[in-house]
Design a protein that fits this description.
InterPro entries: DeoD-type, Nucleoside_phosphorylase_d, Nucleoside_phosphorylase_sf. The protein is α/β, with parallel strands linked by helices and 234 residues long. The protein has a single domain, classed as Nucleoside phosphorylase domain (Rossmann fold, 3-Layer(aba) Sandwich). The chain is built from eight helices and ten strands.
Length: 234
């Protein structure tokens, strides 16, 4: 049954979903990696395609930007379509000097300044964690793949703000081992915990807060091959 935000019928969405933020990136994953990919939803321009990867059905579907948006789609996928695994494939801003533009980060946990979790479980500082089995498998897959992209595993910071400049916060988070900033992982992990869905974020560093290096808009759409292949292998 279609939902207010997803028009697919039951059975049209696979139980494993690759979830970029950008609809064009979802389309590119479907075109470049999936066989027999079919458009199954396009409500509000959020595209979703179902095809096969090495014989297994996979759906590539966008989430839009930010914690509220990914929470809506991930929740509806879990509750209404029986999705049991969601892997976010997106971009992030490097915070630590240990990472560089085009590196891939397997986000084992996500700090956040969002109040969404505070309202979900009042009075508790909830820990946003990836599914351990997925994170471990992603690291092992990255080691098997090799390649030019450096792979890191560790915590990211999920922020509600894209343009707010907070150097003191960045410095403090980096001092505590945070690798990068993005806008969705913590919300996805909270949905995973609530809905019993395995979740993981595999993100590519598109720009760096310290060095100032940055990808172009076209590169942000296309330079995610390593992250996409890790996610699909899961």
């Amino acid at each position: 049954m279609p939902t207010p935000h997803i028009r697919a019928e039951r059975g049209q969405i696979a139980d494993r979903v690759i979830m970029p933020g950008d609809p064009r990136r979802a389309e590119r994953i479907a075109t470049d990696y999936l066989e027999d990919a079919e458009l199954v939803t396009d409500v509000r321009g959020i595209l979703g395609f179902t095809g096969t990867w090495e014989g297994r059905r996979v759906t590539a579907m966008a989430s839009g930007m930010g914690a509220p948006s990914i929470t809506i789609y991930a929740t509806e996928l879990a509750r209404e379509y029986g999705v049991r695994q969601i892997v976010r494939v997106g971009t992030c801003g490097g915070m630590s000097t240990d990472v560089a533009v085009r590196d891939v980060i397997i986000a084992t946990g996500a700090h956040t300044d969002s109040t969404m979790t505070a309202s979900r479980i009042p009075g508790v500082q909830f820990s946003h964690l990836a599914d351990f089995s997925l994170a471990r498998a992603a690291v092992e897959q990255a080691e098997r793949m090799g390649g030019d992209a450096a792979i890191h595993a560790g915590a990211v910071f999920t922020s509600d703000h894209f343009y707010l400049d907070r150097p003191a916060l960045t410095e403090a988070l980096t001092a505590h081992g945070t690798l990068a900033v993005e806008m969705e992982a913590a919300a996805l992990y909270a949905v995973g915990a609530a809905e019993k869905v395995r979740t993981l974020a595999v993100v590519t560093v598109s720009d760096h807060l310290v060095t100032g290096e940055s990808m172009t808009a076209d590169e942000r759409e296309t330079q995610f091959d390593a992250a996409a292949r890790i996610a699909l292998a899961l």
